[in-house]
Predict the structure.
Amino acid sequence: MQLKTLLLSSATLPLAKSETVLGVYIFHRHGDRTPKSLAPTNLTALGADEVFQSGSYYRSKYVASDASSPIVGLSNDIAVPTQLSVISPADSVLQSSALAFLQGIYPPAGDNGVSILANRSEVQAPLGGYQYIPVGVSSTASSNPNSENNEWLQGGSGCGNAMVSSNNYFRSDEYLSTLERTRSFYSGLLPVINGTFSASQANFKNAYTIFDLINVATIHNQTIPSKNLLTDDTLFELKTLADNHEWNLAYNRSDPIRAVAGATLAAQILQQLNATLTSRGKTPVGIQFGAYASFMSFFGLAQLDKLSADFTGVVDYASSIVFELVTNASTSSSSSSSYPSLDDVSVRFLLANGSAAQNAPREFPLFGRSQSPLPWSDFAAEINKFAIGDTTAWCQACGNTTGICASAASSSGGSSSDNDGEGAAATTPSNNISLPVAGVIGALVTLVVILGVEGLVYALAGLKLVKKSTLAATAGASGAVGGAAAAGSKA
């Protein structure tokens, strides 16, 4: 017992080599929720607690006055909105998760939440000094307002070429062979899922939503129809097939546009960390909540799947990845002149699979490197190879030309990338097709399809294209006929 006490005491001593955390970017998945197949999807009490506990962990690591790795200059107990950049899609599950997480980061202020008025009366803020931290709505072109109500990964991405790319998986030999191989497995589960899925839907095409329904049931339902069918081996197979299905929809090494979710996330990470450095720590904390698609896409782009096949699976509820800006140079929170130079800054990547309170984040090297943390310049250069940093780049890569992309195209005067990582270039390693080129290819394919459909419509309707000269010559003969011809020419 005395030896144990000694070890615990020595663990609290400061390290001889001091490392300072300048800032962090945390990307977080929502907590436990109701199944996707029974929309609308809602955060559960368990899910709220999972993300709250995760927030509490990160408070003990970065925020509290006795934090193990305190962020330099960050307020300990009272949230300062300008020090935090928190965003989430306009999705109820993700927004609710963000609010619960933030209450773990900055819990109710208690007596610090009391205001003393001019007449010397005291007013206690509601809920014990509940701290209202703004959660902004993600503003990228690909933001999906209903992330948790989509049946598959690209269903609401809005990126045309990414949707085409993911749909190509459903025509691949790998998918078709798995579909046939697993038919009997899924049909054997019909007694469990036939209240939601028909016999024709019980197959590998719905691998994730079937797994999701059963997974939620095993967590929440005290009774499940034909529960005896759900052996440990069956549950493992369900998860493995779902992981395989979603990984192939989220990432493909030879078709990088499929990972558009990870590419936009990469740019947001780089921009926030860069802003922390250029502002000398004015906004040292970036937090974003998102769906598992972005995790998987980023893992593929960052080559983490080469480290372990575990990175090709769907992360658990309340999982998080963290990017730490760290330095060993002397730093003072009270003097901007002592802020370290970029040459003295590195980036560390960590992953917590599940709530960080129960699964402490683990460090992993990025981009196929063996070194961690990476020097800032190396990190920025590597992530810039695939990051999509603005609406113009996103529209070009996705082949989108309508909506927000129409105005982006008209206002674009060239590349928006710069030399400090602020505008991430939409490029990929040289052995792959670049994302902008993929956008052009996708646009051409779409045009060919549209022309083919139009030709078929003309054939079936008995219409034909008319030259403008012919149309002008016959325009005076019949106003009605001329109008019909003009409409056909415009189409």
About this structure: The first strand starts at residue 20 and ends at 28. The beta strands are 20-28, 84-88, 114-116, 122-124, 136-137, 285-289, 320-327, 345-352, 362-363, 374-375. The CA atoms of residues 39 and 385 lie 37 Å apart.
